[in-house]
Specification:
With about 400 residues, this protein is an all-alpha fold. About 75% of the residues lie in helices and about 0% in strands. It has one domain: ABC transporter involved in vitamin B12 uptake, BtuC (Orthogonal Bundle), CATH 1.10.3470. It contains 16 helices and four strands. The strands form two sheets. It has a two-stranded parallel sheet with strand order 1-3. The two termini are about 25 Å apart.
């Protein structure tokens, strides 16, 4: 017989996941009040999407690395290197813009394979390999750029992070196309959630009551459509948001519906048990870092497009922002726990906090301290949950 969980049971069973969404809503509300509504203005919401898209892309790959029990400290340097290679080809040598994008992706894959080899097959801890990579790839960036910045990129390249799709279906004061895409995405989301609920019922797993299920869909839909409406009143649908949406959908499917995803969780949850179960640990670890390199290449192309050039110091501290997004979003420091959607919410929390404090004119040093405290509290909450779970067994 299928167990139907109430609202209290849902929050109790998955406090960390539920808590991060509640925290996000509270933080948005507080900063909206503190900035007199400027935070949620159409122009500012568009700027948040453009400014933090590359961090969210990195967080997608980073959460998979963390779930497997590893860490990657090199992604900021890889973002700089991939952007530098793209700039040299496109700006310095006149190659087509798409050649630069493909080169950035290829360099990211090669970097990921290099680091994956040392971690998976040589057995060096990822912390050491990627710490070395952080230095190695930053030095390579300086070599590639010859210690100078390159700019500007052609207009087509700049559209990757700065382009918009608008006016396709018209609209008076707002872009209809943006709203239609958001509505279609919500239909897909609702269908996916319904199928997932039916699957849990089939295997007699606990689910929330149907009214609560519908209420959750209505609330999500309201938030998404309100967000889409604000974007439609500004410049329309950002191209980079489409890229990010496709990546979130793809990697959510990979981590929750595929054998590879299940093996990643198995390795992070209990490495010895995964080995005894026949999981090819070395192969999985190798591809985890190849994937991280690929997404760092994507982020490198997006960031260089956003900044309209390549700089030797590009990507500085990006790895820490991506790691913070994952831990704030519910990933465990010991591996085996984490979700792509949680990492996205964690990244948005960091983005909203940074943007809100900037709008309030708060000093940069204070912003850094606040973000550090939030990360510390998120990890402390993770440890508290584990100790409480262990005490109740």
């Amino acid at each position: 017989m299928t167990a139907v969980a109430g609202l209290k049971d849902i929050f109790t069973r998955n406090l960390r996941t539920s808590g991060i969404y509640i925290a996000f809503v509270v933080i948005v509300g507080l900063f909206t009040i503190a900035t007199n509504g400027m935070l949620l203005s159409p122009g500012n919401l568009t700027n948040i999407v453009l400014q933090y898209s590359y961090i969210l892309i990195l967080a997608i790959g980073m959460v998979i690395v963390i779930i497997a029990g590893h860490i990657d400290l090199s992604v900021g340097s890889v973002v700089a290197l991939t952007g530098a290679v793209s700039a040299v080809l496109v700006i310095k040598n006149g190659a087509p813009w798409w050649i630069g994008v493909l080169a950035a992706l290829a360099v990211g894959i090669v970097v990921g394979a290099w680091q994956g080899f040392w971690v998976a097959y040589v057995g060096i801890p990822a912390f050491i390999v990627t710490l070395a990579g952080m230095l190695l790839f930053r030095g390579m960036t300086l070599q590639v750029l010859d210690n100078i910045s390159l700019s500007p990129f052609p207009a087509e390249y700049q559209k990757i992070a700065g382009g918009f799709l608008n006016g396709i279906l018209g609209g008076n004061g707002f872009d209809v196309f943006t709203l239609v895409i958001a509505a279609l995405a919500l239909v897909g989301y609702a269908f996916s959630q319904f199928r997932s609920r039916q699957g849990r019922i089939k295997y007699q797993q606990a689910v929330e009551s149907f009214p609560l299920f519908v209420l959750r869909l209505v609330l999500v839909s309201a938030v998404v459509m309100a967000f889409a409406y604000q974007l439609s009143r500004s410049r329309g649908l950002p191209i980079v948001l489409i890229i990010l949406g496709v990546l979130i959908l793809a990697y959510t499917t990979v981590t929750t519906k595929t054998v590879f995803g299940r093996h990643v969780y198995a390795i992070g949850g209990n490495l010895h048990a995964a080995q005894l179960s026949g999981v090819k640990v070395k192969k999985i670890n190798f591809w985890i870092f190849v994937n991280m390199g690929l997404l760092a290449g994507v982020a490198g192309a997006v960031y260089s497009s956003r900044s309209n050039g390549a700089q030797p110091g590009a990507g500085n501290m990006f790895e820490l922002d991506a790691i913070a997004a994952c831990f704030i979003g519910g990933a465990s420091t010991t591996g085996g726990v984490g979700r792509v959607t949680g990492a996205m919410v964690g990244g948005l929390i960091m983005g909203v906090m940074s943007n809100g404090m900037q709008l309030m004119g708060i000093d940069q040093s204070v912003q850094q301290m606040v973000k550090g405290l939030v990360l510390l509290l998120a990890v402390a909450f993770d440890i508290y949950n584990k100790r409480r779970a262990g005490a109740t067994r």
